[in-house]
Amino acid sequence: MPAPFNPFKDALKKGELQLGCWLSLGDRYAAEISATAGFDWMLVDGEHAPNDLRSTRDQLQVIDPSPSHGIVRVPIGEAWLIKQVLDAGAQSVLVPMVESAEQAEQLVRAVRYPPTGMRGVGSTGARASRFGLIGDYAQTADEQICLLVQVENRAGLAALDEILKVDGIDGVFIGPSDLAADLGYLGNTGAPEVQAAIKDALERIAASSKAAGILALDPAFAKQYIDHGATVVATAMDVALFAKAVRGAAAEAEKLKG
Predict the structure, then answer these.
(1) Looking at the domain assignment, is residue 1 inside a domain?
(2) DSSP class of residue 153?
(3) Which of 14, 152, 174, 183 is deepest in the core (most CB within 10 A)?
């Protein structure tokens, strides 16, 4: 039995638009509710959310039965951490702050088994292989793993063309907030210089064999990014949705005081 088919990776190859939701609450129950919404994918954030390996695994477990595909953003591109996330069942991984082709090449090796990579071989005890039930997991997993790298500063933009040449990278995400900060516009992703850099990067990615991705909670920005070639777009974030809803509810309740 081979490793499970990765529909998200397949959709990227076909250039199909994939819309998703960022999961930052760090909660299994919230992830399960979110997975009923109908997004193409859900990203469990390990960089800016209170997630560890166990909470990441728990959220993957409740996303898996849904139509949404589970993606994990690791906090840093360390091989040992990527190994744990893959063994926990993630088939698609996003790595932040990638600044060079050399770094991207090491990440490709981290998600692949030897002899082409350096992923540790321990699949028999891993959730990814259904604890050994998938007998051919180690032999077939590589082709179903989707690796996304995040370019989010000037160093990454300078190296973007070389990063795009790295075989084994499925897509490149642009990080608007960190990029804006590095360009001198902290908290202002809408600055003309930032927007110009984002759209240029998306067009360069789209012109390659890689998928272009971005997080855009503003529908107007999301539409612009899609027009510039983005095919992997997060249009919602659970924390933002909850905060807006609960604050609105409190404001409505306040009116009852008269």
Answers:
(1) no
(2) S
(3) 174
